Amino acid sequence: MISGKFAITIHILTLLTKFPNDFLSSEFIAGSINLNPVLVRKEIANLKAHHIVESKEGKNGGTKLAVNPSNITLKEIFGMTFDTINLGYAKNTPNPDCPVGKKINQNLGLLYADINQKISLQLDDITLEDFSIQF
Amino acid sequence: MISGKFAITIHILTLLTKFPNDFLSSEFIAGSINLNPVLVRKEIANLKAHHIVESKEGKNGGTKLAVNPSNITLKEIFGMTFDTINLGYAKNTPNPDCPVGKKINQNLGLLYADINQKISLQLDDITLEDFSIQF
DNA sequence: TCATACTGTAATAAAATATGTTACAAATGT
DNA sequence: ACATTTGTAACATATTTTATTACAGTATGA
């Protein structure tokens, strides 16, 4: 379930933070990530749905932040790109006639929920500004 | 990068904990996970390499725990099935001529290292016995 | 000693997911 | 008008994960 979604989204947002006054084109952003511009636009569509960025179509169009980078944390960005973090489940439904098979996913779910909570606390302490300032 | 490896391995180990005196066959285990027995044997090969289980070939063969389930934690199991957990990296090498592209993977790496440490601490508090006793 | 039931492992196939490409309508600045 | 850019769909390719088949090797016990 883990893809480059979070990394790409953070990369986009870091660039937008670095150029707060410009509408950056998907082509420009894609050049920094080394990724297809269409995929950049898809991630941006997701960010727009969460009202984190705003875009302008047409010539000289592009995308810029719609929020102050000190007012958004990595937890929120994480929430936009992942359901939850987990260590995976077996693909097929385990055997419900086995006591272990019957409860394994439930028990893994509890474990993963704990993990998520810890990670969320940690990510909630880091703002986009904190992250971007490292560059 | 996340597959069902951890979940499958935990499932196997929970079964072995529940039947500490038996050599369980890959077929039996596969029936509980609802997974191909060859894949079960592959995960068992990994556990054997880490000296967590022992196998017996031939008729009435199978696999049993080689350690006391109260002496092994989920952290160790995690370490056998994952390199590290992370929220992913973009697939392609980012543009080294961009200040953000140049450092993005390094900075994500630092973030992910922190996350891993937290998860490890948490998983190190849960033994295989603790986990198995829930079933 | 022979049939049976396992492990171990390789080779290959299929399925699922992720990434990439092409295409083009719609919007907007100059 | 023209150039440039977003938005989005449709399709193609690549990668990863899971499944299957096959079979040599090993132990058990009738």
From TrEMBL, chains A, B:
Organism taxonomic ancestry: Bacteria, Pseudomonadati, Bacteroidota, Flavobacteriia, Flavobacteriales
Pfam families in UniProt: Rrf2
Entry GO MF terms: DNA-binding transcription factor activity
Protein name: Transcriptional regulator
PROSITE patterns: HTH_RRF2_2
InterPro entries with a match to the protein in the record: Tscrpt_reg_Rrf2, WH-like_DNA-bd_sf, WH_DNA-bd_sf
PANTHER family documented for this protein: HTH-TYPE TRANSCRIPTIONAL REGULATOR YWGB-RELATED, WINGED HELIX-TURN-HELIX TRANSCRIPTIONAL REGULATOR, RRF2 FAMILY
GO cellular component: cytosol
SUPFAM superfamilies the record matches: Winged helix' DNA-binding domain (SSF46785)
